[in-house]
Amino acid sequence: MIAVRGLQVSKSYGHFQVLRDLSFEIATGECYALFGPNGSGKTTLLRILATLHRPSTGRFEIMGHDGVTEREAVRSNLLLLAHGSYLYDELNAVENLRFAMAMRGASPTDRQIKLALDHAGIGAFADMKIRQFSAGMKKRLALAKAVLVRPQVLLLDEPYTSLDEAGMGMMNRFIRDIVKEGAAVLMTTHDRAKSAEVAHRAGVLSKDVLRPLTLDDLRTNDLF
Amino acid sequence: MIFFRVIQWVVWKDLISEVRSRETISSMFFFALIVILVFSFSFSMDQQAARELISGIIWVAFAFTGIIGLGKSFSAELQNDCLEFLQMSPAPKGAVYLGKVAANVVFMVTVEVILFPMFVIFFNLDVVEELPLLLLIFLLGTLGLSTVGTLFSAMTVQIRAREVMLPILLLPLAVPVMIAAVEATRGALNGNPMALYRHWLELLAVFDVVFTVVSFWAFEFIMDS
Amino acid sequence: MIHAAIKQVQRYKGWFGTAGGMCIIAGVYLGLVGSPPDYYQGEVVRIMYVHVPLAHTSLLGYSVLFASSLWYLWKRDPIVDNMCHAAASLSAFFTAGALLTGSIWAKPTWNTWWTWDARLVSFAVLFLILTGYLMLRTFIDDPEREARFAAVLAIVGFVDLPIIHFSVEWWRTLHQPLSISMRGVSISKDLLVPLIIMGIGFSVLFFYMLMVRTQMLYLANLLNAKKGRLLSHAHLSKAEP
Fold this sequence. Notes:
B: mainly alpha; 9 helices; globular; C: 7 helices
């Protein structure tokens, strides 16, 4: 089924139009890599799908739920990993995970949390306050959260930044795992090589037009 | 139920963060001390004048100190973009609101309870019998400031000039709370019979209920576009 | 559909303007020339013909602001938001007028520029709420957020108005003898007719000004949008390699 569907989504900020009449579909079990120059609106599109902003015109659906009128349903199916780590500095890793899950109405067991932290390679830092985490560790903690949540739709805004080789490998492994379980993944990225390892489809958002790419395109040099 | 769990977790998170960092309460407390000192310099007060003015001074101190706490309530969410996290969260926004109000009331009342003995000492007040009543007045008044204050804190944290806009928006709307709290405090401190000033307490209670409901409803519009 | 309805009403704004103007002229004539000076307060009482309608119209304005704000949150139509903004500016203007005329009345009557009369204090708070609203709007860049936040502020403020009024009333009865109050002004029948005419005139005038101002804001937004579309085209075509 179609996990993410956009129907003529447009977004203007005051008098500046960022997105114009975008229509697209991403099916369950599919990973879509979205490229585009800076300022092309990739992040804006992701944030609209994450229900942070309303589209100026047009609609979108997440797992069949309308993005504006059925927000709570959309939010329980969706997870956004973006630049902000959404972590509280005074809490440690375990507490942050518990809080995030409680806000989704879930109470994971200690074992599940430990497994998620180990999976992301930060099991040893479970009791460390986030204040002391590096950027890379925060990204891995965000990955641990995704492991616990296992959303139906995963939105990733430049997931490979701040991650070392091992971290990027972990990220791709996770993406492959949840895609196999039937989740849909939409990622914005500039990293062609890494995303080619997991993406089923790709596209470029440039000058308001979403141009589909073949996976071969990802390996050539000139995208825009 | 998810609703009550969310409230519990929000309160726990705010309280624990404060216990570990001690940022908010210490800044509120020292600010209040400064306010008290400035007032005592500004009014060269004999006993008579002090009795007249003291309830007003107490609540001015509580209000401005409270505004600091209310502001921090949501500016603390700006770290690591946590405000966005709350916006995207499937948790019911009303529960987040109530949790924030509860945490704010705890912070403000804590500071007030530490501060009040200072007032008693500096201004030589005689209060022992009325302590529980005073505590009730502090609670009702603080809740009044928190209901609207938490809503406006969430609003102003997302705009420019946030530190100045919170008091500008809050204080005119909080006029009934200030008037009622000051009059009730004055009645209690002067040892007047309660019948004389209970209508102020009732006004505070009405304000609290009305604005908890209204802000609970309005919070969603502030967090969701 | 909202646009069509509003455009229909806008066509009649000329009538509103004329009617309002005529009422006010009639009211001013009757008030200044046609009615006798008050026994106790002399000529000064004539300022009531302006003060009272200003006060009523400012409350009318806030009621319009309240209703439009609810309407905006429900339908999210930008033109409704324009109407909110217009209603708030006008209401602030009328409130300031009411405060000024109240002050002008107080000086010769009680020899003080400001009396802590309950109504004046309530209007002073109302003025602060409205200016807070207008300030809030200037500090937000995103128009959608601006409209939404302003609507919430207007609604919360409106619910508070009666509570503010009661608390101030009780406070004044506690701390000040009733004599220094606008309540003292009794209205004889001669004064009532011009007062009512002025009241109607100001209200009608308010609606006229509301329509004009809403249209101004709406057109300004349209202009910005067109400018923006031109700008985005220019921006995008410049990005062409």
